Structures are given as structure tokens and as C-alpha cells.
Amino acid sequence: xxxxxxxxxxxxxxxxxxxxxxxxxxxxxxxxxxxxxxxxxxxxxxxxxxxxxxxxxxxxxxxxxxxxxxxxxxxxxxxxxxxxxxxx
Length: 88
Fold this sequence. Notes:
Elements: H1 8-19, H2 24-31, H3 35-45, H4 50-87
């Protein structure tokens, strides 16, 4: 997936400008983004703060780690059951 040239704090700053009453077209021209990009950002990051986004990133990383741990344990459990089934 292509990496955005804007960081999450920059995206939140652009959204905050619109929330504070600046015209959308002016904000988009200053930021150099299209209308479709802005509305995608608004649907994804709308109402979020930078600290919330950082916490969300931490939770996603933790979730990925836990899923990996579960997959490894499930595979190990299946292997043990297979070995025990063969012995009987």
C-alpha cells in the first residue's frame, strides 16, 4: 500500500481547520489535496485527536501480536493432538 505524504497529525490539523470554520476549498488548496482525499480523511479521522490516533495505533499493534500468538498456540495444539491421536 502506498504511504501517504501526510502524517496523521497533519491530517488532523487539516480537518480541524475545516471544523473551525475555514472554507473547505481554501483549506484543500493550502494543503494541496483533492476533495475526495479530504472526504476520505474525514470519514477515517473525523473527530479524532492525535493522542487517540496514537492509542489506536498501539492497540492495533497489540492486536496483531496477540493474533500471531494465538495462531502459533493453535498450531502447536493441533500438532500435539495429532501426535497423541497417532499413539492411541
